[in-house]
């Protein structure tokens, strides 16, 4: 079934970023270079298209010459309730390495556990679950 998928244009860091997300979330990573796609609008070893397929799926590439790369403002990637609490804590902690915790993953007055982190590649994540999960 087709669903919305996030596609991120990275500033020459797609290989590192997508590999980082594969380490955080698991799944199957597929990377294809500009050279493999016959592109000449960037370095031959730049990523022309990469996908991470798994519990968390996303795709991306290195921005070509003249293209804008990711600048996330006013958007969070929500993983609310997408896994058991222990898994969500693991993901949160891994995403925080080299990034910035905006709001610690902790119990909130409304009864849920949630938090926010901006990872080292600039993506803003909202992670949480209902208490007791």
From TrEMBL:
<dbReference type="InterPro" id="IPR004360">
    <property type="entry name" value="Glyas_Fos-R_dOase_dom"/>
</dbReference>
<dbReference type="InterPro" id="IPR029068">
    <property type="entry name" value="Glyas_Bleomycin-R_OHBP_Dase"/>
</dbReference>
<dbReference type="Pfam" id="PF00903">
    <property type="entry name" value="Glyoxalase"/>
</dbReference>
<feature type="domain" description="Glyoxalase/fosfomycin resistance/dioxygenase">
    <location>
        <begin position="8"/>
        <end position="125"/>
    </location>
</feature>
<protein>
    <submittedName>
        <fullName>VOC family protein</fullName>
    </submittedName>
</protein>
